[in-house]
Amino acid sequence: MKEIQVGFLMSYDYELLKSSIPLVYNEADAITIALDENLRTWSGEKFEVDESFFLWLASFDIEKKIKLYRDDFFDSNLSAMENEVKERKMLASKMGTGNWIVQIDSDEYFVDFKKFTDELKLRNKYLNNPEENPIQIAGYYLNLYKYTEEGILFVSKPRNQKFATNYPAYVTGRNTKQQVIYIPNIVIHECLSRSEEEIRIKFTNWGHAHQVNIDQFLDKWRKIDQSNYDKFENFFYLEPEKWKKLSYVKGKTLSEISKNLNYHKLTPSKLYILSKNFGQWFKFLFK
Predict the structure, then answer these.
(1) pTM (two decimals)
(2) Cα separation of 104 and 110, whole Å?
(3) Domains of the chain by start residue, with CATH
């Protein structure tokens, strides 16, 4: 009990797990990877997994922390988002109550997972009676937008994202609609820094598939590069104004990009975090 239980969702972009799993491995007490037993996405599309991935997983898992959880996560009567919530709840149930449930997607890379887990452990009191005191812990996404010849374009302002909870009664995605505690922790999200084909696959098969005009989005995405990005604005695929501006950093690999980013400048200030947390505390004070 009171462990750091990490869950990953494995789908068509499973190769990215080779980057995301190592970043959390040492600090996790256990890792559970959810894989649809029929290799279907939330939209019901089939995908394949090369056997070499499982060989990599076995060779990497020297401490035997990782378990593969296969189940039927797709229901044709449900929307893609409903299937996402279904899988997340089933995965959380497998991970076990009384622990910190941390769910991470394959394209999410924690910059400092130890710092994140240290923050969780400071709040272990929430694990004593989670149903009566449900809480969510959020870090901040640095959304990658597009690779260029010499670097990467990313969304200038990080946005919060829920990653952990003591009570995984998810409503949409990882959101339980309960009180949020924000912590100054950056997670690099390889959101759109993919090929056009990969973006189409992502948008077709994820929980927000019905909300995205793929062709309209890609028409703008193709036009933007490191020479003209500052002449455009409003880049988000759901509500464009939520991603107002892009920034640029050099680096041809994830490691180089991470090394060149100014995390001190990108991380929200202590005062901002304090005000957000006070607002959440007050909002749920009488609920």
Answers:
(1) 0.92
(2) 9
(3) 4-194+262-283 (3.90.550)
